Amino acid sequence: MLVLTRKLGEGIAIGNGIRVVIVGIKGQHVRLGIEAPAQTGIYRDEIYTRIMDENRRAAEASQHEGVLAACVKSGAWLGQRSEA
Amino acid sequence: MKLMTRLGPVDIEADEILHFPAGIIGFPQYRRYIILDHDADSPVKWLQAVEKEDLAFPIAAPADFAPDYAVTISAEDLSALGVESGADLRAFVILTIPRGAPDRATANLRAPVVVNPDTRMAMQVLTEEDHPIRYPLTAASPLECVQ
Question: Is the ipTM of this complex over 0.90?
Fold first, then answer.
């Protein structure tokens, strides 16, 4: 991991079009300002990791879709239940 | 065009393809998806990667099981999708169905997939609200199916 020291108001440039600036420091908290192209996803690391893990788990369902097929055909899925 | 999918070969039109410039979180390399019906009666659909036959996510419209679900989408995300208001978007949530335990299926309400139906630009967003990542579907509608 590259480690850089920056002061308040200073920033770093990443590749073409991404800038990260230190906009505030208060005790243990650092506020970052980020400029990036619109299609660049920017997320807090801990939530990003959780969503990524959940997406991977969700994609595994396509490997055992027989189970899902059994579910939906039973009419017991989601809002279908009361109408079935 | 003919596409191989988890559900077998399907014929799709180019204008059915959804474009995810940033991909799905954790799968940045795949940017084009289509939505396939699981079957005609099912509220479950598949978000199928165009470039990868065995990558598909089960999805559902949140209105089918969480009628009060509402999300706030950041101005940056709205702008990336080319809309001024979230009312112009359609939302789906990704379902996680544990192997062998469909009665423990959950829906990720924190990171819905939103689509601009006019341009077919789409993205998985993180909602500003702290919605659950694993909302149990059984709370809304108990599942009685078995493997």
Answer: no
